[in-house]
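re: the backbone from monday

yeah here it is again, tokenized this time
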């Protein structure tokens, strides 16, 4: 039998690991809330840095360098790389999605230029479904008017620089965390708002093209989706 094989070998290896080994001592350097991949939900975490030491009889005796940093879940105690913090919590993700739909609705309404009753009804339904339960048509109309007063008249005109920046600010952080169907759904919601009162105007199409770019949807797919939205289901 080869050394280390069989019951006797395993027992010897266990005894040796108790005599000699490496121990890591962890030091907290921060905390917060994150989405834990192990638990599958929002949890508290500690950010830890570690110092490794060679241990004899379980007693650290010689430094072996630093390790980490890592993120430790307060619930399951598992350690993860710090890149796990790039994923938004479910609470934050819901807020990002809600704000994205709201911004897209405003952008399309502003591009339409008229804020027709049909467009306002469609936009309000989309914004409410996204999480703004108390949104009203009057509120959206007032916000579009405020945008016009704040930035100069751009309603009914191609997507202005300020509005394009707002779209990118709302959509750029969200896009990496959405699968393709989710990104396409946001674009289609904007398309339905634009089509509620008739065919796309050039300004509406320009705004929706900006939405598609911010959501990292390629131009060919944007064209396909905008055409599909015009087809009655």
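seq for it, each position gets an aa:
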């Amino acid at each position: 039998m080869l050394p280390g094989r069989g019951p006797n070998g395993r027992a010897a290896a266990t005894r040796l690991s108790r005599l000699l080994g490496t121990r890591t001592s962890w030091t907290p350097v921060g905390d917060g809330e994150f989405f834990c991949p192990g638990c599958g939900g929002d949890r508290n975490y500690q950010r830890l840095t570690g110092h490794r030491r060679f241990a004899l009889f379980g007693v650290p005796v010689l430094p072996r360098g630093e390790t980490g940093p890592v993120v430790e879940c307060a619930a399951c105690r598992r350690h993860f790389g710090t890149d796990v913090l790039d994923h938004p919590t479910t609470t934050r993700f819901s807020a990002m999605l809600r704000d994205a739909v709201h911004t897209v609705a405003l952008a399309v309404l502003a591009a339409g230029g008229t804020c027709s009753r049909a467009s306002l009804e469609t936009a309000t339904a989309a914004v409410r479904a996204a999480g703004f339960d108390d949104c009203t048509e009057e509120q959206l109309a007032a916000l579009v008017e405020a945008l016009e007063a704040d930035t100069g008249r751009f309603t009914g005109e191609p997507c202005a620089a300020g509005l394009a920046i707002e779209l990118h600010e709302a959509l750029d952080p969200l896009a990496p965390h959405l699968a393709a169907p989710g990104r396409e759904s946001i674009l289609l919601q904007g398309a339905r708002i634009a089509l509620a009162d008739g065919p796309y105007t050039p300004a509406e199409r320009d705004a929706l093209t900006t939405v598609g770019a911010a959501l990292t949807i390629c131009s060919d797919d944007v064209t396909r989706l905008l055409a599909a939205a015009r087809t009655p289901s």
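Residues 90-229 form a domain with the TerB-like fold (CATH 1.10.3680). The mean pLDDT is 85.
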